[in-house]
């Protein structure tokens, strides 16, 4: 029986600690997976889609356990899924979020945040009901992490650490960014501010290229005006996915999962890949990149800026503290990753996962065992 229940998702010595099925309202179902709370209460987003599955929520919760541990946060990993299409109209969604909040009130070791289909107003409703949520509106003490570019800042700090270790030179470095959203656009901005040359960017509709470097502030203005990057007058329009194979020092995949696969990883001509999206490369692609000498900094190290920002918000900190903490943690973690890679013949994913597991084991020794 136990095998049947757990077969749908990964269950091992790390977790999940709890898988809770909820019926907050008639015709509304939700699931919360609290994967591991060794380091502290689990932080993880609330995903609202009609197609979300328990296995997906469990996999995302595990990814949060590893990311929070690798980032050095006093938080475990969790995630929840609400089986509903996000509403365009605020009122019914608010009712649903308030019902969800009441349903998770007793799960005090889970702190929800925004994810696909939910936003800061959803978190405001949850917080109003149970006094527990991150990713809140600024007026309630939230730090608008996507607007400020917390994850993009973290990616640039990761590049700083690579430069400090002489892996690359940032001044004049050619950068390619896939996805010009909250993560990619700010990564381009922060890297350009460090003297890098952003030679190509893409969004879902197309891409733009300029060998001498795109004018990133002008691109951001065009984005704010609602223009797709392919229409940018300061660059040459090109096929969306062609930019992934350009020769460059830094490739930032910041769109979706599984972009780099066993079939195309051999075409990557970047010297380093900083994973802006979650799992933008399959395990096989990461192995191929490693064999080819391309340093691929895993998502759990490189894109932790958003969750570090959320953890600072949870403690009442503001923007400056969040950006300082992101810099400190991501630089230190990238440096530790490089040390581990230099010390042993391991791939970056293996080394990053070992960093997270070491922290979890060390913390576990302080927990009650009887
Ligand atoms: N927002 C964060 O702080 C954060 C933190 C960690 C990880 N992530 C992950 O990073 C990814 C991007 O997040 P975001 O917040 O920037 O999302 P977003 O919706 O703001 O931006 C996504 C961008 O990718 C583009 N895009 C989509 N499909 C594409 C494709 N096939 N080729 C090129 N561009 C494409 C979109 O047009 C858009 O510009 C997501 O997978 C998200 O889960 C986000």
From TrEMBL:
<dbReference type="Pfam" id="PF02812">
    <property type="entry name" value="ELFV_dehydrog_N"/>
</dbReference>
<dbReference type="InterPro" id="IPR006095">
    <property type="entry name" value="Glu/Leu/Phe/Val/Trp_DH"/>
</dbReference>
<comment type="similarity">
    <text>Belongs to the Glu/Leu/Phe/Val dehydrogenases family.</text>
</comment>
<dbReference type="InterPro" id="IPR006096">
    <property type="entry name" value="Glu/Leu/Phe/Val/Trp_DH_C"/>
</dbReference>
<dbReference type="InterPro" id="IPR014362">
    <property type="entry name" value="Glu_DH"/>
</dbReference>
<dbReference type="InterPro" id="IPR006097">
    <property type="entry name" value="Glu/Leu/Phe/Val/Trp_DH_dimer"/>
</dbReference>
<dbReference type="Pfam" id="PF00208">
    <property type="entry name" value="ELFV_dehydrog"/>
</dbReference>
<dbReference type="InterPro" id="IPR036291">
    <property type="entry name" value="NAD(P)-bd_dom_sf"/>
</dbReference>
<protein>
    <recommendedName>
        <fullName>Glutamate dehydrogenase</fullName>
    </recommendedName>
</protein>
<keyword id="KW-0560">Oxidoreductase</keyword>
<feature type="domain" description="Glutamate/phenylalanine/leucine/valine/L-tryptophan dehydrogenase C-terminal">
    <location>
        <begin position="142"/>
        <end position="368"/>
    </location>
</feature>
<dbReference type="InterPro" id="IPR046346">
    <property type="entry name" value="Aminoacid_DH-like_N_sf"/>
</dbReference>
